[in-house]
Write a structure and sequence with these properties.
Layout lengths: L1 E6 L5 E6 L1 H27 L9 H8 L10 H21 L6 E2 L5 E7 L3 E7 L2 H18 L12 H11 L14 E2 L1 H5 L1 H5 L2 H15 L2 E7 L2 E7 L13 H11 L6 E8 L8 E8 L6 E7 L3 H17 L5 H20 L16 H22 L45 H44 L2 H9 L5 H7 L14 E6 L4 E6 L18 E7 L5 E9 L9 H4 L2 E8 L4 H19 L1
Helix pairs in contact: 1-2, 4-5, 4-9, 8-13, 10-11, 10-13, 11-12, 12-13
């Protein structure tokens, strides 16, 4: 059994999902709670003791056996979970070690905080499954909603599609680690064929740059990235600098493209960045068995990112220990936002907008909010303590012009202190909360404008570009290579298959840590037993027993190999490597060691 619940700042349930057992148990729990409350009310109103409710438990158990496809009332579930939620929030405010796990009849519950004081409660008896669900949901929400999570309980256009995608999150492969890897086995198999198409696809990416701006293109085949192209020359590794979790979430949400082309918006972070980019993701079924995915900056991305930075800076003001320097940084951000808004023309009445109908007035409005916050902060800071040294780094506006830049704000703009060290007046708390609310409203409006612009401008330009570039000869060339065809996929099943090298392993996973790529293989006859080779603990070498889904026993052998200092070869060959292999139960450990090294040698040879 496993499932999750997402709770907003007001302690209301905004999302709930899980497998059938989880839903059935929750349904039974809700029904029991309602029955119990009804029995209590009946006993009080009639003046009779417990005799009126002695038959209720049995009837509630019967009535709870309903179809699992049910819609829960969030208020009922909130009532059940509220004590646990309040316990977590109170302990997290008073101590540095909040209660983040608790046992219950529904399994162990883990609680974690993300974004603007939102909570994710994950239910599962298995520790690994609980971690997988938690990581998957947090990664998915970060990619789909970003800062718009504050509007997830509305029917706004900006959160409509994200909510549809979130429903399918648990049906996809769950991730156990905060660090994900791109599987390159299919890419390696088709590498020779793809090399013949480099000129064709590079031309598509370069020409798209003229129509829709700087872009990064991914060629997908059966859900895997088999080629990447960049409109900017000299940057061959398109995946470098991008958050792999976000990228894989985007890929998994765009591969089911039935239409010729479609456009959606996602939040994409850089490798170490905190401020995400709001990007248009265009997917097109240009060639048979493949999907072209184009990542391009949304029309309002620059202003959205500055506003989100402003919001994060206001959050940090609550715990700042060096207000003079921190105020200086926020002033710079506010000045940049002021300039960006003043340079904007008012939107026509065809757009549904409030702030951007009069950007100049919006700029004055946010300046006035900031002036009030600054005035209150200076009032608090009159008796400030001696400041502590910290990083004073900051980005220039020119660094953020591209939505796909690898620039990040990993260096904190503020010094963090514990909650009990801060000095906060009620007025400042109200002003900061009000300021964040208005910033979120403007971000939501800008995202809505970006969606409209993408639909009426970006997507038509993309389609026009493809019509001009993709000629019948190009289509004939691509389809003649039979990439993704039934015959080629059957050959793929034998590619880097251990038995082809006379090795006895049933499955393996090779991870190239430095480049966040991997090669995974599971023999067809064991896919029901071994549905996923989990990432294991970072240990140099070990072996252990493993029980499959059917109860069958296997042996796991794992080892790590440090990176190479040699300059020749691919980045994967030079990377530090972790390899996990699954063998028959009574496999000799020394033989397992020799076979895993032999397979790794074959794989590295293929990569070279």
């Amino acid at each position: 059994m496993f499932g999750y619940v997402v709770v907003n700042e007001q302690n209301s349930i905004v999302f709930l999902d899980g497998n059938d057992e989880f839903k059935a148990n929750f349904q039974s729990l809700v029904h029991s709670e309602i029955t119990s409350r009804k029995a209590e009310l009946d006993s009080v109103s009639s003046g009779v003791g417990s005799s009126t409710c002695t038959e209720e438990p049995e009837s509630s158990m019967v009535s709870s056996k309903k179809p699992n496809n049910v819609v829960f009332d969030s208020s009922e579930i909130s009532h059940i979970l509220l004590p646990l939620i309040l316990l977590y929030r109170s302990t997290s405010e008073k101590t540095k070690d909040p209660i983040d796990q608790i046992s219950s009849p529904l399994g162990t519950i883990s609680i974690s905080k993300f974004y603007h004081n939102y909570l994710v409660l994950v239910f599962a008896n298995d520790d690994c499954k609980r971690l997988e669900v938690s990581q998957t949901i947090e990664h998915t929400i970060a990619t789909l909603f970003g800062p718009l999570i504050a509007f997830c309980n509305t029917d706004l256009t900006t959160v409509k599609k994200p909510k549809e995608h979130l429903v399918e999150a648990l049906s996809r492969k769950l991730v156990m680690s905060s660090k994900s890897y791109v599987d390159i086995r299919r890419k390696l198999f088709y590498s020779e064929k793809i090399s013949k198409l480099k000129e064709t696809f590079q031309k598509i990416s370069s020409q798209l740059n003229v129509f829709v701006g700087n872009n990064r293109c991914l060629l997908l085949c059966h859900g895997d990235v088999i080629a990447t192209y960049n409109s900017v020359e000299g940057n061959d590794d398109v995946l470098r600098g991008l958050n792999t979790n976000d990228l894989l979430n985007i890929v998994s949400n765009t591969t089911k493209c039935d239409a010729t082309s479609q456009i959606e918006q996602f939040w994409l972070r850089s490798t170490t960045g905190l401020i995400p980019y709001y990007v248009n993701v265009i997917s097109a079924s240009v060639f048979k068995n493949t999907t072209l995915v184009c990542l391009v900056e949304s029309s309002e991305n620059t202003l959205i990112r500055y506003l989100y930075l402003f919001s994060k800076q206001l959050d940090q003001l609550r715990v700042s220990k060096d207000l003079n320097k921190d105020l200086k940084e926020v002033r710079k951000t506010m000045n940049d936002i002021h300039i960006l808004l003043l340079n904007r023309k008012p939107l026509p009445e065809t757009y549904c907008a409030a702030f951007m109908r009069n950007p100049s007035r919006a700029s004055s409005f946010f300046k006035s909010i900031w002036n009030q916050i600054e005035s209150e902060v200076l009032h608090i800071n009159r008796d400030s303590a001696t400041p502590k040294p910290r990083s004073d780094s900051r980005f220039s506006i020119s660094s953020w012009r591209s939505a796909l830049s690898t620039i990040s704000i990993n260096s904190s703009v503020f010094t963090k202190v514990t909650m009990d060290e801060k000095i906060m007046t009620q007025k400042m708390d109200i002003l900061l909360s009000y300021g964040k609310k208005q910033i979120n409203s403007l971000i939501q409006e800008l995202c809505s404008i970006s969606i409209v612009n993408a639909r009426i401008s970006t997507l038509p330009l993309f389609n026009q570009c493809l019509e001009k570039i993709v000629k019948p000869n190009s289509i004939k060339l691509v389809e003649s290579l039979e990439i993704g065809s039934k015959d080629q996929e059957q050959k793929l099943a034998k590619f880097l298959k251990p038995s082809e090298f006379f090795l006895e392993m049933y499955a393996y996973r090779i991870q190239f840590d430095d480049v966040q790529k991997e090669i995974t293989y599971i023999a067809e006859e064991y896919k029901n037993d071994i549905n996923w080779v989990r990432q294991l603990k970072n240990s140099n070498r070990f072996s252990c027993d493993f029980i499959g889904n059917s109860g069958r026993k296997f042996m796991i052998y794992h080892f790590t190999q440090p990176g190479s200092s040699q300059k020749d070869g691919s980045p994967e060959v030079r990377s530090s490597i972790k390899m996990t292999a699954i063998f028959p139960e009574f496999m000799n450990k020394n033989l397992a060691d020799k076979q895993t090294k032999k397979l790794l040698e074959c794989v590295l040879k293929q990569l070279k």
